[in-house]
Design goal:
The complex is a heterodimer of chains A (272) and B (74). Chain A has 272 residues and is an alpha/beta fold. Helix content of chain A is 40%, strand content 20%. Chain A has an eight-stranded parallel beta barrel with strand order 1-2-3-4-7-8-9-12, surrounded by four helices. In chain A, strands 5-6 form a two-stranded antiparallel ribbon. A two-stranded antiparallel sheet of chain A has the order 10-11. By secondary structure, chain B is mainly α. Chain B has three helices and no strands. The chains are: A alpha/beta (272), B mainly alpha (74). At the A-B interface, strand 5, strand 6 and helix 4 of A face helix 1, helix 2 and helix 3 of B.
Amino acid sequence: MSPRVGLQYRRAYRAALFLNRPRVDALELVAEHFLDLSARQRDELDLLRAHFSLTVHALGTSVGTADGVDERYLDKLARLIAYVRPRWWSDHLAFTRVGRTELGAFAPLPRTAEAIEVVARNVARVRAVIKAPFALENPAAPFALDGAQMDPGAFLRAVSEAADCALVLDLENLHADGWNVGTDPDAVLAAIPLERVLEIHLAGGRPVRGRYLDAHDSPVPAATWRFYRAFCRRGTPPLTIVEREAALPPLEVVLAELDTARAIAAAPGPTR
Amino acid sequence: MIEYQRALAQALTQGHGSVPGVSDQAVAQFARLAQHKRRALRGQTCTRARPRWLAALRSAGRWLCSPLGRGAAS
């Protein structure tokens, strides 16, 4: 399989993207940027859809919420995904809503059988409404919860199997987890079911007050590149997305990271 | 699990209350990290305006800017 690489779509990059189409295999759309499906947003989606392969990445499905998914949000998301017709779409293995309270961040789930049941139930509901293939991403863990019944890699595997969904593996989040909560990224890489990984995310963050912030505002750090090489030694990811969400550099800087990702994924195993 | 989720929501939105299985310090750090990330994403402070991307996340509900910090909730 030849490696495919792309980036998260930012409106500031639009013109430059069209000048560099051969270097971009896919764009990841943040669902929340298009949820209203306004006339302007439809025009923009039409343009992007005509020239790029697209995936949709949502932030607010909250598949970990114990009292179920928000049907109004799901309805909006379903309309967007029906319009875009992406190859697949994804959201995070976390909860962002409790009742009617929005947390404004990805809150971590306890790594328990109960949490797996909740996610599987919610994903089943989501998939009943949205037919496009669905993938769950590992979010950065802001703290470690007591009472974990399994390690992070086993939890990802168990969730993906119980929900029968694919995975988006964010290697920068693994890097952050190693820093903040002592996760062993190599152990996670070894544990996840390779065949379920549809997409790899690469990004860069920075230390803040002794913690690592997955701010997606910096170049991909060396540690994350190392995890990427480790993943690619096991197999070629179907798609790799570089996410740059803030402090946007010239597109060429991001494209250089895409080139690096492509070269790593395409290299013969031992040289990766 | 629902008790944990409700407690975390209360701690984040009201700035008080303990969360089962999580230290108060960890909850406070979580709130600060989330705030830093939102600031990085929007390049603005939460007290100036609700970040647009947060507002766009949901048409209903509240995304608080600084549940445990100094800034006022939006």
